[in-house]
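wait is this the right file?? whatever heres the structure
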């Protein structure tokens, strides 16, 4: 099960994270601007936000492993379409389909984990989030090299179709070892206090905004600040690799430290984001990127875990996860577009990175509100 969760996490990121390192080549080849390029990263995030509530309500008697295997197949199909270096409209469609498949995986896995392995929920969530970090790092580092070798951005993107196929095969083996997995049932009407739901949603909006905006803009920002394509890709890989220990450390410390973990992660994340545009040419630029990745990884992992920690049963966990994912991703999908707007109107990266760091302030206030009133309206 651990390997299946890890590979599913990898599969939900490689098809998304492979685009930012090659965004300039894609924009040049397809003759589109920065806003259109940013939409390629924002589109899957928006679909990952638009669908969780629908997915939670529509599951009916379907088995969770069947739904997740279908989602992985959809991601593989969409990614394989990129081999032909398609026109912009088709490429945008593949991004949307990847977002649909990812939404299914991220909506179902938290409640499945909490129901089937209640004493391993934090650890399995951390493994899943670490898989996302592995996938993003792998795609960010290898995509420029694949482009250089194949001289085709389509091949560099399409090759990642193999990962969701491997994850689906692994999950199938795991499901076969469990003869009677419990079917998922449609969640009853929401009974969770509205105040608790709003706090969870607001926190996830912040963590997802930090994660997706950084993922979309770190490589283009470093390229614009004078770093080469491969060096920008490697710095992006450092960011995504650092998310792995961030997720694992946050998950392992949560039971003992609780919200003090969030305070520390928010502090180091804000500091590193402020330093990135200032120290872009410094020899230790990679260190600030690594710190930002560590913080974003931990914050994102805990954002996915909080519904499982607060929820009183599987149905409530699924409702809370679906609503937080919907709100978080719909609003976080605007983050890369807002960053692009700030970049164009400020003519520098200092202002957009400072605004991104500022997201940590309301997140700190929200986390302390959750700590004081975890399930009160």
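ok assuming it is, sequence goes like this
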């Amino acid at each position: 099960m651990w390997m299946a969760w890890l590979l599913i996490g990898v599969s939900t990121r490689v098809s998304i994270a492979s685009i930012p390192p090659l965004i300039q080549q894609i924009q040049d080849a397809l003759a589109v601007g920065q806003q259109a390029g940013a939409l390629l990263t924002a589109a899957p995030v928006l679909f990952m936000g638009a669908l969780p509530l629908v997915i939670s309500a529509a599951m009916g008697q379907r088995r969770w492993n069947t739904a997740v295997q279908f989602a992985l197949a959809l991601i593989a199909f969409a990614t394989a379409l990129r081999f032909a270096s398609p026109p912009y409209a088709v490429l945008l469609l593949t991004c949307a389909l990847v977002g649909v498949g990812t939404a299914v995986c991220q909506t179902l896995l938290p409640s499945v984990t909490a129901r089937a392995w209640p004493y391993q929920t934090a650890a399995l969530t951390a493994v899943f989030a670490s898989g996302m970090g592995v996938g993003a790092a792998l795609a960010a580092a290898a995509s420029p090299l694949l482009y250089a070798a194949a001289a085709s951005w389509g091949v560099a993107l399409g090759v990642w179709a193999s990962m969701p196929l491997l994850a689906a095969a692994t999950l199938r083996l795991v499901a076969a070892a469990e003869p009677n997995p419990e079917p998922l049932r449609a969640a009853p009407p929401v009974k969770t206090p509205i105040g608790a739901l709003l706090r969870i949603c607001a926190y996830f909006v912040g963590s997802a905004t930090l994660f997706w905006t950084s993922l979309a803009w770190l490589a283009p920002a470093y390229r614009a600040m004078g770093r080469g394509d491969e060096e920008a890709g490697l710095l992006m890989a450092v960011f995504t690799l650092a998310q792995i220990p961030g997720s694992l450390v946050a998950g392992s410390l949560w039971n003992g430290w609780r919200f003090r973990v969030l305070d520390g992660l928010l502090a180091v994340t804000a500091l590193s984001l402020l330093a990135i545009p200032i120290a872009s040419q410094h020899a230790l630029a990679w260190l600030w990127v690594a710190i930002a990745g560590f913080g974003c990884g931990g914050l994102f992992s805990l954002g996915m875990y909080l519904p499982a920690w607060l929820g009183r049963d599987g149905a409530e966990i699924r409702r809370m996860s679906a609503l937080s994912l919907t709100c978080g991703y719909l609003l976080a999908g605007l983050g890369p577009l807002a960053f692009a707007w700030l970049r164009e109107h400020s003519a520098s990266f200092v202002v957009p990175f400072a605004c991104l760091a500022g997201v940590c302030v309301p997140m700190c206030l929200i986390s302390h509100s959750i700590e004081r009133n975890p399930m009160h309206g």
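The mean pLDDT is 83. so i think its the right one actually
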